[in-house]
Amino acid sequence: MKNQYIIYLATLLLAINFFACKKKVEAVSEKKAPINVTVVAVEQNDIKEYLTFNGVTQYQKKENIRSNVTGYISWMKYKIGDNIRNGQTFASVRTKEQDALKEAVKIDSSLSKFVSPITIRSNASGVFTVLNITTNDYVAEGDVLATVVQPKSLVIQVNLPYEYEDAIQIGSSCEIILQNGEVISAKVTGKLPTIDPVAQSQIFLIALPDANLPESLNVQVRTIYKEDTTAMTIPKTALQTNELLSDYWVLKIVNDSMALREKVVPLLKNDSLIQIKSETLKVNDLVITKGGYQMQDSTIVSFKKQ
After folding, report:
1. Distance (Å, rounded) from C-alpha 189 to C-alpha 158?
2. pTM (global) more than 0.85
3. Which are the contacts of 102, defined by CB distance < 8 A and separation ≥ 6?
């Protein structure tokens, strides 16, 4: 009987110890590990918000070289891209009458002065962009033989929606962004006093007299729309919002371990930063930029600085 009592007591103690250990393990397992996130400090920056429009290059000054007589081209040495000066010989034309006089010259040498081809001269200085003739071509009086453009007359034509009419004026600074990434600083030099009736846009001109660009090149024109030199900014990746885009917030780190949701109002933005307005955030506070998507308020986190 005594032995049975001892066995019963030992079994009871083992059972109590087993359940105590199980509860301890369960308690430990309920403690969640902190979530790893990346954070960055709130900063004060000069932030600019830009307006970007499409533009196209055009030469404002173009001159056509026309034939002043009917006949055949006897001489023309130019090709597209060549330069020519005002008054320089462009081509020579021989007429049917001159061809007929060749035989008469053999009889009367005084007629030789009428046999020389007629000279056509350029009426402008510039670069050939169009050539409509080659040697021995037949031309009529008044035909357009070539087109000469003046490189110094290059402009960017920008169609600006009228709603932004106050954002750009003559003299406004802007940047021309080319397709190869090159950026040219310039200023608005003119505008046309008409509005496109369909698009409701107005044409602004940006002169680029020193740029070596082809005509009809599509470019982007960027100008400053708004600016704040003392803006409180965060990276775009730190800002979160709901599906309706009606509420915005960031996750702020407190006590070096907890993420708290703080409401903010987004203001200006550029390619990487957003200006925010907040009653609780201040410069140098840490906010989560990575790992905080759909994170609940007061979540325990472990972070590293970006």
Report:
1. 11
2. no
3. 115
Torsion of CA 195, 198, 201, 202, to 10 degrees: -30
Work out the number of other CB atoms within 10 angstroms of the CB of residue 217: 15
Which of residues 254 and 19 earns the better pLDDT score?
254
Question: Assign residue 87 a region: left if phi > 0, alpha if psi is -120 to 50, beta otherwise?
Answer: left
Q: pLDDT grade, residue 29 (50/70/90)? A: very low
pLDDT digits (tens, 9 = 90+) for 205-249: 999 998 889 899 999 999 998 999 999 999 999 999 999 999 999
Cα–Cα distance, 159 to 219 (Å, whole number): 12
CB 155 within 8 A of CB 205: yes
- Return the amino acid letter for 190: G
3 state SS for 113-161: HHCCCEEEECCCCEEEEEECCCCCCEECCCCEEEEEECHHHEEEEEEEE
**Closest C-alpha to 268, from 45, 52, 53, 42:** 45
What whole-number distance in Å separates Cα of residue 298 and Cα of residue 223? 42
What are the backbone angles phi and psi of residue 142, rounded to the nearest 5°? 95, -10
Integer CA distances (angstroms), 203 to 55, 189, 191, 277, 304, in order: 10, 11, 6, 36, 50
Question: What is the C-alpha separation between 250 and 297, in angstroms, rounded?
Answer: 10
User: Minimal CA–CA distance to 173: which of 221, 215, 212?
Assistant: 221
* Helix (H), strand (E) at residue 26: helix 2-30
Amino acid letter for position 265: V
Q: Fill in the amino acid letter for 184.
A: I
Question: What does the pLDDT average to over 198-211?
Answer: 93
Taking the CA atoms of the chain, what radius of gyration do you get in angstroms? Answer: 40
pLDDT tens for 125-177 read 999 999 999 999 999 999 999 999 998 999 999 999 999 888 888 999 999 99
Closest CA to 34 of 193, 253, 265: 253
pLDDT at 115: 73
